[in-house]
Specification:
Order of helices and strands: EEEHHEHHEEEHHHHHHHHHHHHHHHHHH
Largest sheet: 4 strands, mixed
Shape: globular
Number of strands: 7
Number of helices: 22
Radius of gyration: 24 Å
Structural class: mainly alpha
Length: about 500
């Protein structure tokens, strides 16, 4: 373990040795960098004297703090490439942490529930434990404390300066530590070894009409994978509940490994005559997904790495994440839980929105042309709103600013496709839509969300079938949802069972 301290300006201070097992709780009043072994300590001293502090600074990120100007960040330095072994060490610590929270703070009130919250889909209620990510209304998503720009800086990439590898985010979500490139490569290799799809899965999908929605075919394929569930087999044999997390881990890694191949088959079946493309043993998770879809361009592979990473998790209250957590709380295995999550993701108010955005943008082009003026665009937006519809891709249930996932996709487009007509149209929408929605007065967040941009990028590289886009979202969500399912079982989280009431109960309660 290596714990780093930097100032707000990124200045690295001196190092000293500590014993193995030291904590990263902010102790060390001398502002030291803590290393757990003499070789690491000596190596870092040499690093400083060689004036290469900037290289280390690039591997360290800062997190705003209301109380101090330093951030303690645990960087993975272990030579252990086995993710299961890492979790076996971490889980007992986190189990004790949860017990302490229960015993010391179990009666602490977190807020008041209002009738509006009950009637508004439980919006704003604090009622779920979700360790892997946290969504702030103003800052956006943080994965284990790291923002998207920070993840882009510190997570290993396929090439220098490239987009983060999804396997690195998986390691981060599960352990809370930034992995080394060697650990990410080892995880890539393990996922490839688990990616073989049984023939019955393809036959099950083939039993559906080829005209069935891609999400229907994808979810059916995931359900067909369920027969291999290690958790279900272990539960039938009588596994102790303290060990639930281990077969859940096995199922989750296999599921994460297999969903790109299932999703790619659905795409090839519907749009490319059904010819399957096998896994390439030289490629990483995101690169292989693009390859199996039939896109081997390096930029498309980079886009898929970015896409899978930023869509992977968005805390636990969204429909797909919450559904997976809810179904898993009944001790349903990861396959059943994730299939349920996919059915939630398929809804027009959730993952299907990325499909709707591109279709709407193309409708703008069809009516106004590619060189649409600002006035024409304003007229079309008002036409959409006055017809009782929404402008897809704008607004969010939690965020109160432009979605950071939108911004990183915008940066990708500015780098790789600045002159694309549809991207230029998206840029105009970024300027035109928020003032109109603000004028309308009914939208709390008039800014673009993640769905406002992804379709244009995919369309540019040739993946033009908007009806398929939610499947891409589903593949990404496997990483976040399955990571949390492992921790649900490790922490022994209980069956989810909130209390429901009737309108009569509410009326009587409020009268009192």
């Amino acid at each position: 373990m290596c714990v780093i301290v930097v100032t707000k300006d990124g200045v690295v201070v001196h190092a000293r040795e500590v014993d193995d097992g030291c904590s990263d709780d902010g102790s060390g009043d001398d502002g030291s960098i803590l290393f757990s072994s003499p070789p690491l300590f000596a190596s870092f001293h040499h690093f400083l004297f060689e004036s290469k502090v900037e290289l280390l600074r690039n591997r360290v990120v800062q997190q705003p703090s209301l109380t101090n100007s330093v951030r303690w960040l645990q960087i993975q330095t272990s030579s252990d490439l086995d993710l299961h072994a890492q979790l076996k060490e971490l889980i007992p610590e986190q189990q004790e942490r949860l017990k302490k929270i229960k015993s010391e703070y179990g009666k602490v009130q977190l807020g008041n529930i209002t009738v509006d919250m009950v009637l508004g889909g439980m919006r704003g209620m604090t009622g779920l434990l979700w360790e892997t990510s946290l969504l702030d209304p103003d800052e956006g998503i943080r994965f284990r404390g790291l923002s998207i720009p920070e993840c882009q800086k510190v997570l290993p990439a396929a090439k220098p300066g490239g987009e983060p590898l999804p396997e690195g985010l998986l390691w981060l979500l599960l352990t809370g530590k930034v992995p080394t490139k060697e650990q990410v490569d080892a995880l890539s290799k393990e996922l490839r070894s688990r990616a073989t799809i049984p023939d019955h899965v393809y036959k099950t999908i083939d039993a559906l009409p080829v005209t069935a929605h891609p999400m229907t075919q994808f979810t059916t394929g995931v359900m067909a994978l369920q027969v291999q569930s290690e958790f279900s087999k272990a539960y039938e044999k009588g596994i102790h509940k303290s060990k639930y997390w281990e077969p859940t881990f096995e199922d989750s890694l296999s599921l994460i490994a297999q969903v790109p191949a299932v999703a790619a088959y659905v795409y090839r079946r519907i749009y490319k005559g059904g010819e399957r493309i096998p896994v390439d043993d030289t490629l990483d998770y995101g690169g292989n997904f693009a390859h199996m879809l039939g896109f081997d361009g390096p930029e498309m592979q980079e886009l898929m790495r970015l896409y899978v990473t930023i869509h992977s998790d968005h805390e636990g209250g969204n429909v797909s994440a919450h559904t997976g957590h809810l179904v898993s709380s009944a001790l349903s295995d990861p396959y059943l839980s994730f299939a349920a999550a996919l059915n939630g993701l398929a809804g027009p108010l959730h993952g299907l929105a990325n499909q709707e955005v591109l279709l709407w943008i193309k409708s703008v082009v069809a009516e106004c042309g590619e060189n649409v003026t600002t006035d024409q665009l304003k007229d079309y937006i008002w036409k959409t709103l006055n017809s009782g519809k929404v402008v897809p891709g704008f607004g969010h249930g939690v965020l109160r600013k432009t979605d950071p996932r939108y911004m990183c996709q915008r940066e990708f487009a500015l780098k790789h496709l600045p002159n694309d007509p549809l991207f230029q149209l998206v840029s105009k929408l970024f300027d035109v839509v928020p003032p109109i929605l603000t004028e309308l007065g009914k939208v709390k967040n008039p800014w673009p969300n993640v769905d406002a941009h992804s379709g244009v990028l995919l369309n540019y590289y040739g993946l033009t079938e908007a009806r398929y886009y939610t499947v891409l979202f589903g593949v990404s969500r496997a990483i976040g949802i399955c990571s949390q399912l492992i921790w649900d079982r490790a922490l022994g989280l209980p069956l989810e069972r909130p209390k429901s009431v009737t309108m009569e109960w509410l009326e009587n309660k409020c009268k009192k």
